[in-house]
Design goal:
elongated; 3-stranded antiparallel sheet; 5 strands; two-stranded antiparallel ribbon; alpha+beta; 51% helix
Length: 213
Amino acid sequence: MKKTIQVILQVVLAVVIVALIYVIYKQISTPIRFENEQKAREEAVIERIKDIRTAERQFKSKYQRFTADFDSLINFVLTETMEGERKIVDEDDSVGMAMLKKMKKKNVEKFTYSVKDSLFKNLTPEQIKQFKYIPGTNGKTQFLLDAGTIETESKVVIPVVECRAPYISFLDTVAYRQEVINLVDNCINNLDKYPGIKFGSMETGNNEAGNWE
């Protein structure tokens, strides 16, 4: 009987040891796995939000304002053109410059170019249509996009834009619930920063700066 009790105690002790090892391993590995996943997902979001910023800047270049409508922005990228200027001849080309002077022509010509082919030639139309969706959300969650104007301290009215992807929208809040809570809390209460990825601001003109930069 005594021997049986000893065997049972040894088994129980072994189970407890294994359980403790598992708990310790999980406590150590979970933050590491979360950090790796956070980094990978952030990189995907940043790549797409950079494209949105490029499109918004080009939209503003043509219309002197930003847009808060993704459909308008996507249609602009896919279908519209811009007008640019380029030199006709190299200014070091004395013969060419002399001919232009003789013809009383300026050394500049205007041309049009496709927004899509000039800035997004490596993206397919289908990829551009996905601009509005935050990566990692299976096309279910859109970036938060705002645009408008503000008046600066010098009384100048300027267009502004802001695009956001909160952490809770693209990080795994099931597998890493507490880690996400801690991350958001740290951003808000300790770092005084937006808990996610964003560029621009609706409160100040910041040249569409990204908070990852």
